[in-house]
Amino acid sequence: MAELLKDAPLKTVQVEALVVMKIIKHCSQTLPTTATGFLVGMDSLSTLQVTNSFPFPTIDLPPTDGHHDSNAASNLAAAAPRVKINAAYQIEMIKKLREVNVDANNVGWYTSANLGNFVNLNMVENQYHYQKELNERTVALVHDVSRSSQGSLSLRAFRLSSAFMAAYKEGKFTTESLQKSNLRYQDILQELPLQIHNSHLLTSYLHTLDPTPPSSSQQPPSLKTLSTMPSPLSPNLTSLTLSIDPLLAQTSDLLLESIEAHHTELNNHQYYHRQLAREQAKITAWQQKRKAENASRALAKQTPLPEDEWTRLFKLPQEPSRLEMLLNSRQVEQYARQVDGFTAGVTAKMFAVRSTLVPMGKGEF
């Protein structure tokens, strides 16, 4: 049975509604600091069932000039899933759950995000730690607090692909290794469909509720109030507003920051190539000089000098890792998709009112 579970690929992540509420509450309370916790549940063939969640203990930082460093607190919280103290806390919690005979299998961890800024090195290291050390079939649930605040729940499930796991285990993200493995930034994360599940008892309770809304057949207090009340058939113009989504500007700023970080990594890689070309030119000049010396020594019937001393005299620069560039590319793609989603509704409205905003020329209707 265990071999059958291992061979069946994961297709769906099923999360209990109570777990979703606990994750939302924890992430909302710790905003803007990153919130992390671990998940327990069961692995049923191709479905990973998440039945409970527990937040990791918070670490209090000493005050610096009367204020806490928010970046340091966020970094510590983001790295909490792989800290030894939290690992011991996680093992102890699972032990207690087994004593009361409930699901106590480690199925992953969760983290909070702000406008989709979850593709970073901390997220990759945490998920690699879970998939390598604890369970290969673990997932990472990402809850976007900012997007969920607009009324649409943003909860997604990710895991690292097998190709990226092999590359990260090797620890080489050079140009040559990436070309051999054919690894792209799209291959870093694998998103799984997520389903929210309610227990049978809760479903039965929901069916007992009266679906009809309460009647609003109250009499108006006066004729003046009756005249000011809108008619049920009056047009609603709020849906025609042309205001841009407030999160669009923030997402655009984050997109620009990711593009700048990508250009910084690209400049570092170009600087490495310039340094490499400069050192290789020195090595070539030295080798030609040594060959000329050996040719003259051969004519004089002297012992030739070794031609491999350049390995001791010259040191080639080490190629920087391209992991950050891959992560930045994946993050830029994430922001671009969000911008596309934010502008979809506004763009349709702008096309509808284009005739009133742009003067029409001849032949245009």
Account of the protein in words:
This protein is an alpha/beta fold and 365 residues long. Helix content is 51%, strand content 14%. It contains 14 helices and 8 strands. It has helices at 2-7, 17-30, 70-78, 84-99, 121-134, 145-148, 162-170, 175-181, 200-208, 223-228, 246-299, 310-313, 323-352, 354-357; strands at 12-16, 36-44, 47-55, 105-113, 139-144, 155-160, 189-192, 194-197. The chain has an 8-stranded mixed β-sheet. Helix 11 runs antiparallel to helix 13 (323-352). The longest helix is centred in the last third of the chain and has 54 residues, at 246-299. The protein is flat. The chain starts with a helix and ends in an 8-residue tail after the last helix. The model has no long low-confidence stretch (mean pLDDT 79).
Number of strands: 8
Overall geometric form:
flat
Q: DSSP helix count?
A: 14
Class by helix and strand content? alpha/beta
Q: What is the rounded Rg?
A: 30 Å
What does the main sheet amount to?
8 strands, mixed
Q: Would you identify the regions where 5 or more consecutive residues have pLDDT less than 50?
A: none
Please write the string of helix (H) and strand (E) elements. Answer: HEHEEHHEHEHEHHEEHHHHHH
Beta-strand percentage?
Answer: 5-15%
Largest sheet: spatial strand order: 7-6-5-4-2-3-1-8
What level of helicity do the residues show? 40-55%
Distance between the termini: 69 Å
The whole-number mean of residue pLDDT values reads: 79
In a nutshell, what does this entry contain?
The protein contains 14 helices and eight strands. With 365 residues, it is of the alpha/beta class.
